[in-house]
Every structure is written in C-alpha cells, then in structure tokens.
Amino acid sequence: xxxxxxxxxxxxxxxxxxxxxxxxxxxxxxxxxxxxxxxxxxxxxxxxxxxxxxxxxxxxxxxxxxxxxxxxxxxxxxxxxxxxxxxxxxxxxxxxxxxxxxxxxxxxxxxxxxxxxxxxxxxxxxxxxxxxxxxxxxxxxxxxxxxxxxxxxxxxxxxxxxxxxxxxxxxxxxxxxxxxxxxxxxxxxxxxxxxxxxxxxxxxxxxxxxxxxxxxxxxxxxxxxxxxxxxxxxxxxxxxxxxxxxxxxxxxxxxxxxxxxxxxxxxxxxxxxxxxxxxxxxxxxxxxxxxxxxxxxxxxxxxxxxxxxxxxxxxxxxxxxxxxxxxxxxxxxxxxxxxxxxxxxxxxxxxxxxxxxxxxxxxxxxxxxxxxxxxxxxxxxxxxxxxxxxxxxxxxxxxxxxxxxxxxxxxxxxxxxxxxxxxxxxxxxxxxxxxxxxxxxxxxxxxxxxxxxxxxxxxxxxxxxxxxxxxxxxxxxxxxxxxxxxxxxxxxxxxxxxxxxxxxxxxxxxxxxxxxxxxxxxxxxxxxxxxxxxxxxxxxxxxxxxxxxxxxxxxxxxxxxxxxxxxxxxxxxxxxxxxxxxxxxxxxxxxxxxxxxxxxxxxxxxxxxxxxxxxxxxxxxxxxxxxxxxxxxxxxxxxxxxxxxxxxxxxxxxxxxxxxxxxxxxx
Length: 667
What we know:
Layout: H1 14-22, E1 26-27, E2 31-32, E3 39-48, E4 54-63, H2 69-75, E5 83-88, E6 95-98, H3 115-121, E7 126-131, E8 137-144, E9 150-157, H4 158-161, H5 163-206, H6 212-222, H7 224-238, H8 240-259, E10 264-268, E11 274-277, H9 279-285, H10 289-292, H11 297-301, H12 304-320, E12 330-335, E13 341-353, E14 356-365, H13 367-388, E15 392-398, E16 403-406, H14 409-414, H15 426-429, H16 432-446, E17 451-459, E18 462-474, E19 480-489, H17 491-505, H18 515-532, E20 536-543, H19 546-553, H20 555-572, E21 578-583, E22 586-591, H21 597-610, E23 615-616, E24 621-622, E25 626-633, H22 640-656, E26 662-666
Helix pairs in contact: 5-6, 6-7, 19-20
C-alpha cells in the first residue's frame, strides 16, 4: 500500500520478535512508523501453515494521530474543561491518547512529578484531588484496562467542579437576607397586634389612681377581656402583702442556688445596670462581682457592633417584658474582660419591677462546643462540595436501608428531588430490577462484610453499567449501624473494553469469530463432547477458485463474496453451532451434540446447496461453490490439533474429487 515498504525488514521491531518468540498475538508499545513516521500501535498475530508452523506475521496498525475510537475519546470532555487520557504500562510509560495532542508519544511524568499516576501504573484505581505536571488542580480518576496494558485517566478541574457550589452559596445568602427582612417585618406587625390590649391596659392604669374601682370603670369602657385582666390584677394586689414575707424567704433560698449554679447568672435593672453577678459569671467573663455591680451591662459585655441593637431591645423590653431572648435559648457573642469575644448561650427571664421589667439572664460559655461545631460544619461542607461534584452515586443508609445522606448526583441520575429520597428505603427509590441485583450485596454489608459488584440497569432512561462498593459502618461495640455506598458509572469503559475484545476475538470483515476465538470454542466443544459422550464434527471449508475471483473482480468484490459466504454458512447451521473464519477464504464449523455421521453429512449437503444461488454484487452476479472437509470425532483421545488436521485432509480429498462437494473422515 505504501511506496518503499514492501520488502523492508521489521525483524528488529519488538512486536515482531515477541510474536515469533511466543507464537501468540501481541499489542505493541507506541512506535513511530518506518515509512510514515506517524505515532501508532501495532496489533500483531502469528500466521501458521496447515501444519501449525509459524511462517509469518499479520499486523494491523492503529494510528494515534488519525481519527479512530481512541482519538474520539481524546476529544471527549468532562464538563467544559475535563478530559481523558491513556498511558501505557511497563518500563517506558507513554501517552497514547491525550486531549493535548502534542503529548501523544511523550513519556509520562515520573513519580516525583505525578505520584498518583505512578501509583496508577502500579495498579492503583480510584479518584484523588491533586496537581498534575503542568500545574492543573483537578480531580484525577484512574482505571486499569483489562484487555490491554493501558491506564485510562479522567481529569476534572476543581475550579469547574466547585463553581456550582460557590454560586449556590451566594444564592442561599441572598435569599436568607431577604427572608429575614420579610419575616422580621411580619413579626413586628404581629407583635404589635398582640400587644395592643396590654397597651390599652397600661393607658388605663396611667389614667387613674390605681384603685380597683377606677380600673374597673376604665376597663368597662374598653373591653370585657381587659376588665378580666384588671380584675385578676386587683386580686393579685390584694394578696401581695400576704405573700411578701414568703417571697423574701424564697428569694434568699433562690439567691443561694443561683450563686452556686453551673450557668452564669446576671441580674439587670430597667436601666441596664448590673444588680446580680454569681460565681460562674466571674469565671466566664473574668470580672469579680464587686467590679461589675452598679456598672452598665452594655459597656462591659456587649460587643461594640451589637450595642445599638442591644440598647434598642432593652428599651422595648423594660416596658413590655418581651423580646426574642425572653424564655428562649439563643446564641450570641459577649465580651470577656481581656477584650476577646466569646460565644454564649443566653436565656432571659423577665421580672416586673413596678411599671417596668428587669431581666434575669442565664448564660453558658459554649466556646468549645462552637469550635467543635465549626470544625464539623467545615468538614461536612468540604465533603458535600466533593461528593456533589463527583459523577458517582454516594450515599449512607441505616440498618433499615433508609437513606440518611445522598450526593447531588442522585437527583440527576434518578430524576428525583433529594428531599423525596432522605428517610425512604432504597427499594422505594431504585427500580425493582436494580434492587433485586443489589439486595444480596446490601445484606452482606449489613452483616459486617464489605461488598463489591457490577450490574447493568436503567437509570433516568439510560442503560448504565454500574460498579458499586458497599462499606459497613461499624459502631464501637462491633455492631453495624449502616452502610456507605459508592456507585460509579463505568459504561464508557465497558464499551471500550467490549470494542477492544471484539477487535481481538472477531473477524472485522465477516463479524465471525476469528482464529483465536475459534481455538477457544473448539477446546470447549471437545471438553463437552468428552464429558457427555456425544460425538461432534469439525468442518473445514474454502471457496473454490477464490484467487481467480480476486484477480478478475478485485479485492472489494472478494470481500463482498466472503461476507455473503459467511452469512450463508451461519444460516445453514444451528445457533448452538460455531462458524468461524480462520484466514482468507478458509472457514470452519463446529457441530456439537451429534448422534451419527449421517447428521454431519446432512449439514454438509445443506451448505453445498446453499451456495447454489448466485452471489449478487454491485455490478456482477457470480456462481460460487465450496469444498468441505468433515472430521467426525468419536474417539475421546483425539485432541484439537489432530481433529483440525483430519478436517484439513478431508478438505483436500473433496477438492481432489472435483470441488463443489464434501468428504468425511472419521476418527
């Protein structure tokens, strides 16, 4: 095909020497063509004569710089800037496919530059976050291919992976501010409505001398409800003197309890002045009791940025006894004596003092808890950022197989909102077929044993080949609390493996099994025949005068004849029989589960008759015949090589008989 190539020597090529030394097919390391100087990979297979002796080599070239399935993979993208590349294993790892075309046929960086790639070349499989030899920060996934000594890597830049997360943070922050403003306005209006009757009561009490008769007269004008409140108030006032003595005794007892309470206690009057300060308050804020009594709380404990808000809240509190911290536990920042801000948990009890309210505040230093929460939140944020941007299913299920955590990929793969998944059993979310395949592995993990498996199922209308790992979550007592799951879509890799397998085991012209696949099928058929005791037969066929067809009509017509011939052979036998193309116009058929030699003869006659109909081509119609050698195997001690040689002898006897016929030899 190329000028100057025919007759040149390839004896020094490593693939040729390996084929000659091993008598087996070889996939070469990346090389440069002897004539084209193009980077390529050679698929080489030994050629044998009828006696099985290796007499040469058949080579196929896959050019790394031309369009093919490898270059198509090199142009594929993960997201916008992600890509794939392939590296050979061995002593000289080399890029054979890369999105950056100038890197093809260049040596892969060593362990000092890219340690993760070096580990992948030694067998590591998985995903890591790292920086490659050209300074790109990305997520790198590695997988060793099973059919060829290559490593496939997927590269996904972290800048792109985390972009969606950053945008979502901004949206959530904006929405939170708007929601807080709207809710605050609504609460302010609603609180005003609720407090209106109390305002009426206050006005009535301020407008009279405080006697019960006057109050009742004022309330009668306003409302029955207000009158009932005033009546209750009057009753309480009548009991005031009787309860004051008991109250003083109770106060002394409570004061003793408060001074020894584990929470800091601070009493504040209507002007914001500190009136009580227990021992725990001294330890929490660093001030002694004598140093703070009579001082303004805001100046001592409230951070400067919060003082205006605090003072406004106190102004409303002293008149109403109401506020967001009253009878609630809230987290705020407070000043320590050393000027540091510390987080505290605050709860305020309102106590009426005359016509105003004073505050009893309980505070607890939560610095250690907040530090632990911040570390946990940061860890969870990093975990969520990573898991949500990985193209894999990541989840955690409890012992009842209910989802407790999922990443964002679940929503895209299963087309279901995350809120509808959390808390539900896995059997309610995935398809019935999917669940039945994974159920035994899930039970294995819940029993305490890790499980790894592959299944093929439909998700979101797409057939996917999924690889899943289940890791049990062990408690300290050894019991299993749940299962961590990781499911990866390996459909693309499986497709590449399947394509490589087809190239290695099937004839590219006819689609029939090639010599390698036939050898496997023949050995399997002989083993079954020996095990069951059923005879079998091997047919060796070729096309009569095929060389003349090629010489007169050309190789394209010859290829068309070979494809039609192979199709008629398949149509003439059972689906359980094997039809294969060895080389050129040589075909073989394995017939299994026979009872007599006559059954094999019947199939041979059927094939001869099937060839009687003319072979139609684009510009010609041609009569084609075949000669068939049939080896009928009854002896269990007849190996594959001898059976094939017997069929070959029968074929030559059929040719000697005039062609367009068959001849049978029995072992």
